[in-house]
Amino acid sequence: MTELTQNIKFLLGEEEVNIELNDASTCNTTVLEFLREIKHLKGTKEGCGEGDCGACTVVLVTEENGKLHKKAVNSCIQFLPTLDGKQLLSVEHVHDHPAISAMATNNASQCGFCTPGFTMSLVAMYENGSSDISDDLAGNLCRCTGYGPIIDAAISMGDKPTSDPDLVTRLQKLKQNSDGVASANYFAPTSIAKLAETYAKHPDATLLAGGTDVGLWVSKQHRLLEKIICLGNVAELKILNETDSTINIGAGVTYSQAIDIINSNYPQFGEIIRRTGAKQVRNVGTIGGNIANGSPIGDSPPVLIALGACIVLQNGNKTRELAIEDFFINYGKQDIGKAEFISNIIIPKNQPLKAYKISKRHDQDISAVLGAFSIVVKDGLVLGARIAFGGMAGTPKRAKACEQALVGKVFDMATIENACAALEGDFTPLSDMRASANYRMKVAKNLLKKCYLEMTEA
Amino acid sequence: MSNSSNISEIISTNNIVGGVGKNISHDSSLKHANGTAIYVDDIRVPENALHLYAFPSPHAHAEITSMDLSQVEAADGVALVLTANDIRGLNDVSPTHSGDDPLLAVGKVVFQGQAIFAVAANSLNQARAAAQLAKISFKPLPAILSIDEALAKDSFVFAPQVMAQGNAEAELKNAKNTLSGKLNIGGQDHFYLEGQASLVIPGEDDNVLVHCSTQHPSEVQAHVAQVLGVERNAVTVEVRRMGGGFGGKETQASPWAALAAMTAVKTGRPAKMRLVRDDDMIMTGKRHPFQISYEVGFNDAGIVTALDMTLVSDCGHSLDLSRAINDRALFHADNCYYIANMRVKGLKCRTNKVSNTAFRGFGGPQGMMAIEEVMDQVANALGKDPLAVRQANLYTTTNNTTHYGMVVEDNVAGELIAQLQASSNYNQRKADIEAFNASSKFVKKGIALTPLKFGISFTTKFLNQAGALIHIYADGSVQLNHGGTEMGQGLFTKVAQIVANTLNIDLSHIKITATNTGKVPNTSPTAASSGTDMNGMAAKLAAEKLVGRLRKFAIEHYGVSEAEVTFLPNQVRVGEQTFSFKNFVHNAYMERIQLSATGFYATPKINFDPETGKGRPFLYFSYGASVSEVAVDTLTGETKVVQVDILHDVGRSLNPTIDHGQIEGGFIQGMGWLTNEELFWNGDGALKTHAPSTYKIPTMGDRPDIFNIALFDNENMEDTVYKSKAVGEPPLMLAISTFRAIWQAVNGGLNAPATPEAILNAYEEQQ
Predict the structure, then answer these.
(1) What Rg value do the Cα atoms of chain A yield, rounded?
(2) Is B665's CB within 8 Å of A101's CB?
(3) Contact criterion met (CB below 8 Å) for A180 and A235
(4) Tens-digit pLDDT profile for residues B506-524
């Protein structure tokens, strides 16, 4: 049976919850508000309301092809309707979990306010058999402990993923009941055709992928989004594959899902994705969203531009392909039509790549400058160069003068110095709280030098 | 009564469980981990509760020319709008009664983020939305936004303070070598994970019960009473725990409690005020930025013969605690070094910024940063090893008088440094680093060892008092109350251990309670690292009173001599009989013995005269030292802290696990202050780093790859509780070695915080 429903159904621990999406404010309710204010479950804390501290971390359990996926997410920027068909676990639902005793017995808490969030990140780690502690917990801030005892807790806990066939069945059953959600304020189509149709009908709607940006419009800017189209259930947006020459990433693919394939082709790009956001952000955030939001400081666009990647845009049943560098027109302005959306990203393989992210803090910080260099050198001569920067202009942008100063020249320090000077013609960066214009320019030049030193050292 | 010992009690007679010196986990560790620990915002409120939002000034300095709040009042869900006119009592929440901290603005605003009016509505979202409907006209006025502007305009919150010994001016002229310099040190946001929060429950008459996340319940009580225009006996403040404090909830908790209290009294409904992260960061005070300038004279051996230094702090718009904070910077401008001719002057600038306040170290870190800069500059000028210069300048048994006249009696810095120098393999690693730097293209390493000596006691004398109240119930269980507050530092656990030791019973019988102004009155803030020293001692004295009464009861009731009464672990032996503590207490109760006692402690020996700048402001000093090794990418300014070794003095540790946690956590917090944590104000005086997306405290990956922490074997020579030493603040200053190591890597020219940008600028300047 298939039908569109105005209701969402999910499991809160073991309890089946059924919510009617009868107004915009219900659709804009965050998972954190739902837990704390509606269910009076106060274990999950609000630390920042913008997905940057991890105090509100919960675990979402999803079912795909008979398998359970358990991921840590920030509940403060996750909208309630996105729970449809999933299980939500807050700290109240894991009372017997080894993560709790690990945190309690290793002196891993002092004030305790961040602790339930750490507990939930540890639960996800444990259940996923992960042991990359520093990466798994980079999205949880603790102001008291200095982190050492928390690392001890993570080590002591071990990992033994539990299987739960009953839960698989229950989640499958929850999803069977609907072919997608469609209320006046919230749509969650399940196919790309449905998405195109819905967006054409409601071009004023906000497209919601991971919500790591859109969520803040509500949690921080206190806006009310009248219509939301959730991309999370569109099957075609989840494609992820590679051929001999390209990687194809659906716009709904999360960073976490894409990171392995990116890492195996471009390790430095993989590291940048890793540093773009911590686990809770990567588990929901998408590369598609990172491009579509048009930010001048998104981390993947400069790298994608340097690699010569393109996006596929769809409007109704029409599609077109566009080089990513041409997508960004000006600050706040992209080449995207009314009711048009990004369906997938195509990245050429086997390109040279050096990429560097500069931020005040190493993990989970927004870039001051991001430099990406794809320079082809043969017999000491530069045959080709695609260089792009983030944080240097109103958009992620190619450094064309710099490229010109390189191509056809001998690949030596003198050429690099000229190319560095040419960057002054490419960019007039701004000063803000992340860095001054002066530093941005200086470091952009130095990144080119670093790229040269690394390429010639090998 | 018969001897009623059973087997389990006999087993436990070897020792009590959970006494002093044991590694006991934080009392709430399980509740923290499973989310059942209750913070103010977690307290279930009745459906009719109101939620407050305060409207922040959009200007750094402006006259309010008109204000129309009629649309705010008419908005959905709004129950009440509060302006300064609604304050029945006094419109001031200054901790020092300086009258320059209005709760709500009157006629003008003096910083961006100052509360102008407040709205109480059925939800925070409604209150915030309603506040946006205000129609307020401002006439902007010139704003002072930097220390330099404030100095140029003689804008100060308090008179200068000078501390001096010898004759710095004359000896600078006589010095073999001199140099002068400047150092800028940035501020720091506390970034406690739990923002400011108060929940006020109205009672009969105008009584209120205030649940507040504060380090200073008695001050919140005083401010709420003052604003309401009632006596303090009408206000009860309760604090079970805070989600972090670090000094940020000492004076900064009052305004929100007072606004909620006004609402509760006016409407008869419970009222909650919780600042969300951005509002908290914009509207509450931070660590003071400092500007240091110095002129130093030194001989060829690197001995500092004369030092003239000025420490200028950016206090923001009001006095708050800035006087004592700047004083503490002066008190620590010697750190571990004897400087025969030293003059240090403190200036406290008034600027149009949020009023800066207490933060772990309370000026001490900035004072130490100043003198450690001087030490490195001297070493650099002479081409000497910076550690050797530091060691050459240490206090000795004869050169032992500080510039404020206090004698350094337990000077252990030399021994502690030597131990750490050996255990960290400093000398070899320094040589290795020099070799590495000679061949490395763009990664440069640096290593530095810095010591610390931190004075323990409030320099404001009257604050050095504490009270406790202990009840033993007739079943032998104990309820412990004292004036200290729990912000994660483990105070409650330590004080309970002290009481367990004193009563000689297992820790499990002692119930820790919320701090409540109705139980222990007139408390001092839990601050100045003094929480355990003072409240632990007060609780010990209360417990000793109870032991004394029980002993007297035993002597009189059982007709034995004092020598025949022994308090064994969980038991009392009276002559030939042995009672369980429980039965013994029951017997005492039946014989009408008072089983409740108060304890009171006032720190001895301390005095200071600001007129002369001389005295003994501290009961004792805590010591420590650390070695940091860093690697700097000189193309980008990015840094990695490779290794840190710490040796720290906590006297006889009451709880090594908890002390270890304070040391590690304090270090990382200090490292954040001096590296990534940059507060950025734009040209209009607006703070642009007001959330974790832009304000970067250390995350797990910033922790040093190798991190060794050890406790220095020492006991407090003063009569402190079980010979322990304070541990709250001092470890933060261990992070100064990280800053010095980066400075070494880039060869100087560095200001704090050492962001990648600051590091790259410094490096390029030195090339």
Answers:
(1) 23
(2) no
(3) no
(4) 999 999 999 999 999 999 9
Give dist(CA A124, CA A115) in Å, integer: 14
Q: Is B154 exposed, middle or buried (0-12, 13-18, 19+ CB in 10 A)?
A: exposed
Name the A residues in 350-369 with CB < 8 Å from any B CB. Answer: 356, 358-366, 368
What tens digit of pLDDT does each residue of B615-629 get? 999 999 999 999 999
Q: How far is A48 from chain B (nearest CA, A)?
A: 5
Q: Is the pTM of this model over 0.90?
A: yes
Is A117 within 8 Å of A142 (Cβ atoms)? no
Q: Which of B135, B121, B144, B179 is nearest to B61 (CA)?
A: B144
- Residue found under tokens 């993560």: A99
Sign (positive or negative) of CA dihedral A172, A176, A177, A181? positive
Buried b (16+ CB within 10 A) or exposed e, B617-633: bbbbbbbbbbbbbbbbb
Q: Using CB atoms, which residue from A147, A433, A439 is nearest to B680?
A: A433
For the sheet containing B478-482, what is the strand order?
B510-512, B478-482, B465-472, B596-602
Bridge partners of A240? A249
Contacts for B179 with CB less than 8 Å, ≥ 6 apart: B295, B296, B377, B378, B381
**Mean pLDDT of the region B90-103:** 96
| Among candidates A90, A107, A358 on the partner chain, residue whose Cβ is nearest the Cβ of B657 | A107
Q: What pLDDT shows up at residue A177?
A: 67
- Inform me whether the pLDDT recorded for B556 exceeds 50: yes
B492: nearest Cα among B462, B526, B525: B526
pLDDT by residue (tens digit) across A222-255?
999 999 999 999 999 999 999 999 999 999 999 9
- Looking at beta carbons, which residues of chain B come within 8 Å of A56? none
ipTM for this model: 0.97
**Separation in Å, CA B469 to CA A377, B235, B354, B515, B627:** 78, 19, 37, 11, 43
Q: Which of A309, A142, A116, A280 is nearest to A211 (CA)?
A: A280
How far does chain A reach from its first CA to its final CA, in angstroms? 60
Give B363→chain A minimum CA distance, Å: 20
Residue B1: what pLDDT? 36
pLDDT in tens, A98-129: 999 999 999 999 999 999 999 999 999 999 99
CA separation for the pair B22, B506 (Å, rounded):
12
